[in-house]
Amino acid sequence: MALEQLSVLLLLLVSVLGKAEPEKDNDTLYSEEDLTNEMEPSEIPEVWREERAGHRMDSLSVCPCDLHPGFCDLNCCCDSRCDSKCSMVGSECPFSFCLPGSTRAVSRVCLEKSLIFQNNTPYFTEIVCDSSGRTLLFCVQLNNSKLNYLQKPQVITKENFPLLSAQYGRPSFILPEQTEPSPSTFYRVGDPIQIYFNASSVLSVLKQPASMFASRLCSNENPAGFLESKSTSCIRILNNFTSSCGSDPALDAASYYSNFSVLKVPINLTVFQPLQVKIIPVTVPPSPILIGNTCYNVVSEVLYKVEFSGIHGIQSITVQFKVDNIYGNPGSILQQRFSLRFWNKNHSFSKRRSGNPGYIIGAPLVALYNGTQQYVTILQNQDNGQCSEKRYRILFRENMRTACQFNASIKLEEPNCIPLQESVYQVFQGPHNSGRLAIIGNANASQPGEWNSIFTQRCTVQDRHPCMIPISLEIQVIWAQVGLLSNPQAQVLGARYLYICKPLKSLGTYMNMLPLTTTVAFTDVTKWPESPRSQPRAYWKLPFDFFFPFKMALSGVGSSSGSQAGALLVTLTLCGVLVL
Length: 580
Prior knowledge:
By secondary structure, the chain is an alpha+beta fold. The chain is 12% helix and 31% strand. It is built from six helices and 27 strands. The chain is flat and about 140 Å long.
């Protein structure tokens, strides 16, 4: 009776975990139903389920590795010509492993063999060892539709073929259909400049020859880009010097402007006469000519100047040439230079801002002189050490020092003291007198609140030395960061021109030469606010234990003074207790 109950229990387990399959090796498994109600492992702890590759497929018609009819293919465990006892785990199999596809994955439920006394089930079973190799397990193979099934292929029709190809397709050699983009109505930056040959009705682009990689040989296929002002240079090798002089168009200036016109805006097919702009040469050089062993009037430099007007395109274009004479023989080398410059007469280029709004490091310092914005400058020396008419710009937060020799136009004598002082002051200040300094980099001349006054401290007359001559200028600029901590802006708070003067008699001048020095110093006075979170502070908290001070005193922890204080505290406490 117990044996029958145990058999019923095993059949119930098999029916719950999956549909067991009959012991027929030549049956192909098809998907009948999914195992949607599998029991949790905690519900049947004694059941051990395993999924692995096993059970040799002897008579299956599907054997992808059986490629030689009538012969046993190596490691093909499903080949009917191989050993009938061959399987992936079989000890008598001559193969070291089974090729993929020659075995099928199985799912089985196993119990300890000691619980099974008799096996009368019609389903495929086997006795295997567990992972430790000590316990024998009785396993029943399940018909797991998730592991063994055949999927019916889809029916491909003329209607669903494009859909499936687009959904599951991969990149191939078939290029997608490309449509020609409609041309723009105006040139954009970098667009090739179009040209038109009237005689042949050919549409092309303007070329700017450039060197090819490391060889530096000229390549005539480099298009000129709109609004890309640049210069290129390359070399040409005249292998046949005699014929190249008169026949090579690259050496003739006429080939760079005649027989074609530039289009104002890009077009696609139809070219109208109003869209054509003729290239006007500034000077018309003669054609190259060979006289003796010399080729005259060879183009060595070409410069195009293109006037444009926004979206209205190219308005005019001129070309300038530089020609040379070549003396040589076959194999002579000619170096050419090609330049392209764009300009717009309707556009007034304003000076670059020094910041927006705060000053940028390295930007020029801006001042206001008689309502006109100018850069603040200091002395600059020439190669011979004398003061130059050119001047250095003062750059924000860059300390500077310059020196030069000033050649006075008047004699360095005390009767000429006042005009000499004024001339030296003028040299220090430059063409503009000290005006008002911009607080921010984008200061507006019409806003008085965006400009600071420059404090000037000149030489003072002394009783013993009535003639004091300025020999050095110290420009001191005070600035600070203001605004948000996340994006602070640099502002100039004030500036001072401090002149260092010496008596005329103590200068020891020679040949009316005065040594002048200028220094620039920036001082940061930024006051940064306290951070939102202050520094962590020590937080003292007495222990809840009343006897903690006495314990610490008696244990001797701490310094000697602390131990003495603790002992005194214990003594006083005990005395108070005794008195009470």
